[in-house]
Amino acid sequence: MQCLSPSVRALPPALMVKPRLFRQLLLTLLALLLIGTCGYAGYRLSEASGIQTLTGNGERQLELNARAVESEINRYTYLPSLLELESAVSRLLLTPASQHRQRLNDYLEGLNRRSGSLATYVLDLDGRVVASSNWNQADSYLGEDLSFRAYFQDAVRGRPGRFYGIGSTTGEPGYYLAHGLRGNGRVIGVAVVKVRLDALEKRWADARVEAYVSDENGIIILASDPARRLKAVHPLDDATRERLARSLQYHWAALEELQPLARRELGHGLEEVRLLAADGQPRDYLRQSRPLADSPWHLTLLTPLAEQRRAASSHAMLAAVACALLLLLALALNQRRKVIATRLAAREALERANSELERKIAERTADLQASNTRLQDEVRERQQTEATLRQAQDGLVQAGKLAVIGQMSTSIAHELNQPLAALRTLSANAARFLERGALDTAGSNLQAIGELVDRMGRITASLRAFARRSDDRGQASLEQAVDAALFLLHSRIEQERPSLQRQFAEARLAIDQTRLEQILVNLISNALDALREQPRRELWLSGAVEGDSYQLEVRDSGAGIAPDVRAHLFEPFFTTKPGEKGLGLGLTLSASLAAAAGGSLAVRHPEEGGSAFILSLPTLREGNHRHD
């Protein structure tokens, strides 16, 4: 397992996330770069393959169109030499006469009509037209001096005359074929046939082939796009322009240069150019050229690259998509490999954890069994301890009762001694009155004796009820408990003579009657002790229901509790009384009895002096009687 270095572990989590994000961003950029590279490579490969295909197709089409141009030109090459066989031609050239001229004009008109040429005419050695097929037209060539034409000059010298130009008379472009006519072993004149080549342009336009033919001067004489006709395919210097202007070969055309908007050499006579199309929009073409046979002309084929570019773009897109799919597949395979590795590692870790868990479960089971045994032993010990504690608590409660009875022994003896003394006196007097026969007086004495005996019985009954054992649970009457406690403490109340104020509502409380009386005896007894030697002796018993409990407050106007002993009030065997006056168990037992019944005993220290103990016990029902 790989662990982080201390310096890395010390980094905050926010800083540890940044390298991961940076790595993910870098991988994303690399993937995009790879996809873009694949798309670019696909585009270039498709473009190269497409250009190669277009080149092969273009060469075949160039060859076919070149043969068509050569065939169109060669179909008229025999006509000028054919006139050499006509006797009317040599007769007119050797002996010019009007009748000979008219006969030749008629012949040339018929020949021109049958051959489909533009015009057929004959020139003498001075370059003047002596007969023409258009003799009867307004723009007839008769009498025209054409000695400046190159085809005439070549034919006079015995060479075939080939010339493209625009007629100086009609302004109509055409291809001129000239042949020197011989007679008597010498050249006596020149026969010229002017043919039309625009049929080629029409066929190109119908076939949607973009091509043009340039002559020996680099001027486009035939073009599928009329806008390119009579434009130079290469720059012309001033001397050439002046020479062409004097020759009137192209009439008064400006001979502008066909300047590509962009060009790129591809080698082997191939060139990529950008030209304005017929619709005025720039388009890219593959330009291929070849010379025509038996002619200084060149045929140029323009193959549009738009379809090839779209195909290359599609192939580039496919290559990019394929690369992206491969990357996604690789990512998925890598992720799957990680998932499988993670699952295998998790399975191994789970098996190890399962084995470890089984071992720990076995150990834990043994520990739990031992702990269960110990807990059972502790439960038994605690149950025994609780029983012992309960017995001890009951003993302490009983001891507290006996301690209270012991403290009240003097008062009890005083309470019993008075009736006993009265009994002796009354009994002796009753005997005397019986001897004297005073039966009424003796009867009243005997009645008083009975009342004294009843009083002594109530005292002993209260002591016996107070001293008997009781349970935690039960129900008690608050008023009855207060009366019983005050009756038990009657002698002390007679001694201290406090101002007693009772302000509480009768209630049924969830506590044993005897235990409630014991708590009240302890609290009132402590209050009477606090009032001893006090000039103002007041005792308040007040209470009210608060929710589900009853709050009874026993407050005195004594000197109060010193701050240094307040924290020890409820500690066992803690007392501020002399040794023979108390054991220090009264408040402890009272608090314990209140807690056992689900209540509490608390103390507060009023600002006006004295102490106030608050007894809180749950109620059974709410009383509606009030004592003042």
From TrEMBL:
It is found in: Cell inner membrane. The keyword Kinase applies. It is an enzyme of class 2 (transferase). Its EC number is 2.7.13.3. SUPFAM superfamilies: ATPase domain of HSP90 chaperone/DNA topoisomerase II/histidine kinase, Homodimeric domain of signal transducing histidine kinase, Sensory domain-like. Residues 411-621 form the Histidine kinase domain. It is a multi-pass membrane protein. GO terms for molecular function: ATP binding; phosphorelay sensor kinase activity. InterPro entries: dCache_1, HATPase_C_sf, HATPase_dom, His_kinase_dom, HisK_dim/P_dom, HisK_dim/P_sf, Sensor-like_sf, Sig_transdc_His_kin-like_C. Keywords: ATP-binding, Cell inner membrane, Cell membrane, Coiled coil, Kinase, Membrane, Nucleotide-binding, Phosphoprotein, Transferase, Transmembrane, Transmembrane helix, Two-component regulatory system. Pfam families: dCache_1 (PF02743), HATPase_c (PF02518), HisKA (PF00512). GO terms for cellular component: plasma membrane. It catalyses: ATP + protein L-histidine = ADP + protein N-phospho-L-histidine. Its main location: membrane. Residues 340-395 form a coiled coil. The keyword Chloroplast does not apply. The chain crosses the membrane at residues 315-333. It comes from the Bacteria. This is C4-dicarboxylate transport sensor protein DctB. It comes from Aquipseudomonas guryensis.
